[in-house]
């Protein structure tokens, strides 16, 4: 009984804090998202006159919106530690991120750790489950040009055709540079049993920390975006020459997200902040596109190899609390990712001032008309 009484004030404060955070999130969305839509509408003439400038401005606002989502976790103590190669070196090139998927918090984690990578977030296209279309952020993603993919065998071929068409219509025309893809096709907890049964039946690697990836979306992306040289081989960057000026997709960034004790953060936790401060660890490995096979069977094998490596990385992390050093290095070096409190204050202030401005403009026209 004494223990319950001791915990009561803490639980009470946790509930109050969660309610306050939820209220702020609601208000934040109510001012930021409509303001974004209003700016996009009012800038439509610019889209006709100078499409590239329009999508640049839209991308900056999109980055700010994702920065607001990142700030919800940041102020709850959910931070990111980065390992492996420094992806800032390829931030101006075209790249695809292949990410393992454990929970909805994976998306929030990426929103946070990519904020300090130049214009990556502004020029990024997400491939995410169609359920996200019906969230508060769905309208923003639709305007920005993200792709919502419906899972399930019966939808697979149709969705791949839609993805191909979407890339043709939106990727180049909107000056996109990076694509975020979760090749597993679902959360680890939902796909692990099916993946292991498939692996056992087909004599494939048996994985527990990740699942076997699907190659369909990756193949569509590579075929659509990799520039072909005259000899037919893919053009792309070289690991020793990061300033390559070759056009088209140049890099594959193998991204592995790890949570302490294998306990992922979900979107509810990110918003309400009821979990204790947690450091999420993100490991990067960069592959030049010229080293990635484009044929279906070879690409599938290559993807399996990457996820076997993810399995080993995560096993090492869960045992030691750190990722292993890269090849050729004796020690693994981590980098703490930080968000600027001043920058967060400025984008939040802009959002609330914009919301106030648009409210008064709409109210004025409403009274004029009615």
From TrEMBL:
Listed transmembrane segments: 20-42, 54-75, 131-149, 342-366
Gene: LPGAT1
Keyword Membrane appears in the UniProt entry: yes
The species this protein was found in: Gorilla gorilla gorilla (Western lowland gorilla)
PANTHER family with a match to the protein in the record: 1-ACYLGLYCEROL-3-PHOSPHATE ACYLTRANSFERASE-RELATED, ACYL-COA:LYSOPHOSPHATIDYLGLYCEROL ACYLTRANSFERASE 1
Family: Belongs to the 1-acyl-sn-glycerol-3-phosphate acyltransferase family.
Protein name: Lysophosphatidylglycerol acyltransferase 1
Record's subcellular location: Endoplasmic reticulum membrane
CDD domains from the UniProt entry: LPLAT_LCLAT1-like
Pfam families: Acyltransf_C, Acyltransferase
GO cellular component: endomembrane system; endoplasmic reticulum; endoplasmic reticulum membrane
Main localization category: endoplasmic reticulum
Gene Ontology biological process: phosphatidylethanolamine acyl-chain remodeling; phosphatidylinositol acyl-chain remodeling; phospholipid biosynthetic process; positive regulation of fatty acid biosynthetic process; triglyceride biosynthetic process
Protein's membrane topology: Multi-pass membrane protein
Keywords, sorted A to Z: Acyltransferase, Endoplasmic reticulum, Lipid biosynthesis, Lipid metabolism, Membrane, Phospholipid biosynthesis, Phospholipid metabolism, Transferase, Transmembrane, Transmembrane helix
Domain Phospholipid/glycerol acyltransferase: 95-211
